[in-house]
Amino acid sequence: MSATIIDGKAFAEKVRTQVAAHVTRLKDEHGITPGLAVVLVGEDPASEVYVRNKGKQTLEAGMNSFEHKLPAETSEADLLALIDQLNTDPAVHGILVQLPLPAHLNSDLVINSIDPAKDVDGFHISNVGLLGTGQKSMVPCTPLGCLMMLREQLGSLSGLNAVVVGRSNIVGKPMAQLLLGDSCTVTIAHSRTRDLAEVCRRADILVAAVGRPEMIPGDWVKPGATVIDVGINRIPAPEKGEGKMRLVGDVAFASAAEVAGAITPVPGGVGPMTIACLLANTVTACCRANGLAEPEGLTA
Ligand SMILES: NC(=O)C1=CN([C@@H]2O[C@H](COP(=O)(O)OP(=O)(O)OC[C@H]3O[C@@H](n4cnc5c(N)ncnc54)[C@H](OP(=O)(O)O)[C@@H]3O)[C@@H](O)[C@H]2O)C=CC1
Ligand SMILES: Nc1nc(=O)c2c([nH]1)NC[C@@H]1CN(c3ccc(C(=O)N[C@@H](CCC(=O)O)C(=O)O)cc3)C=[N+]21
Predict the structure, then answer these.
(1) Disulfide: which of 6, 140, 156, 281 matches 122 by Cβ 3.0-4.6 Å?
(2) One GO CC term of this entry (predicted)?
(3) Residue 168 in marked binding region
(4) Is the predicted ipTM greater than 0.85, yes or no?
C-alpha cells in the first residue's frame, strides 16, 4: 500500500473543536446558543443511528439539539406545519429533514418549505441556485467535508482534472459545483456514462458517490490521484459472525490504495466530516441570523 490515508475522523474532530470554540464565543459574548433541529419521519434503523450521532455531537459542541421523530404515516400537512414552526422558532438556527422521506411525501416541496437561512443541508432551491452562481449560500455538508479534505491534502485544486461519479442533488451535483468553484476541470459521470473506467483514469481527483459497494477498482485509478470515497454501503460480513454486517465504500479500498496518492477510508473518511460540517453550518447560520462575523475556514 502506498497511498496516504486521509483521516476523516481526526479531521472532523478538529473541525468540531473549532465549532465548539465559536459556540463558546457566541454564548459568552452574545448570550446566544446555536440550535439544530433534526426531523426524522418513519423508522429507518440506519437513519436513526445517524440522527442519534448528530444529536450527540451537537450537544458535545455546546449547541442545543431538537429531535423530532414522526411516524412513517405522517401527512404532508403535518410535516409542513412542523417545519413552519421551526422556521419561526428563534432558538432554531438550523433545520435538517432526514432523507429519504417516505414515498407519500413530496421531498422537493418539503425541502423548499424550509427557511433557506436555516437550511443547513443546503438543499433548498435558493441555496442550490446561490451555489451554482458562486454566491454566498449554505453549502451541502457532504461535499463541503470532501472539499475541506481535498484542500488540506492538495493545497490548490486549480487546473486539476476532477471526476465525480454520481449526479445526485445531495452529493454529486453540489460536489461538482464546489470543485468548479476551486477551478478544477470537472466531469460528472453517472449510470449512462460510456467507458467509465477510462473517464476515471483521467482523474487527478476522483470522487465516488454511487452507492454500489466497491464498484471502483484500483485499475480505474490514475497513479497518484486523490480518491474521495463518499459511499456508505452495508454488506454482509460472515467472517465477523452470522448475520453480521460491515461498512464499505464505493471504491475497492485495498486495490485503490496501491495506486492512489491519497484516499479516504470507509468508515472514518467522509462520514464523520459530514456531521462536523453540519455543526459548522449551524454555527454559520446562527452568526448570519444575528448579524455577527462568520467563523473563518468553516465555509466554502
Ligand atoms: N458519507 C456521507 O456522509 C454520505 C454518504 N452517502 C452515500 O453516498 C452514496 C451515494 O449517495 P447519493 O448520491 O444519495 O445516491 P443516489 O442513489 O441518489 O445517486 C447515485 C448516483 O450514482 C449513479 N450510478 C448508479 N449506478 C452507477 C453505475 N453503475 N455507474 C456509474 N454511476 C452509477 C447514479 O446515476 P443515474 O443518475 O444515472 O441513476 C446516480 O447519479 C451512497 O452510498 C450513500 O449512502 C450519501 C450522503 C452522505
Ligand atoms: N437531509 C439529509 N442530510 C444528510 O446529510 C444525509 C441524509 N439526509 N440522509 C442520509 C445521508 C447519509 N449521511 C451520513 C452521514 C454520516 C455518516 C457517518 O458518520 N458514517 C460513519 C460510520 C457510521 C456507522 O458506523 O454507521 C463513517 O463513515 O465513519 C454516514 C452517512 C448523511 N446523509
Answers:
(1) 140
(2) cytosol
(3) yes
(4) yes
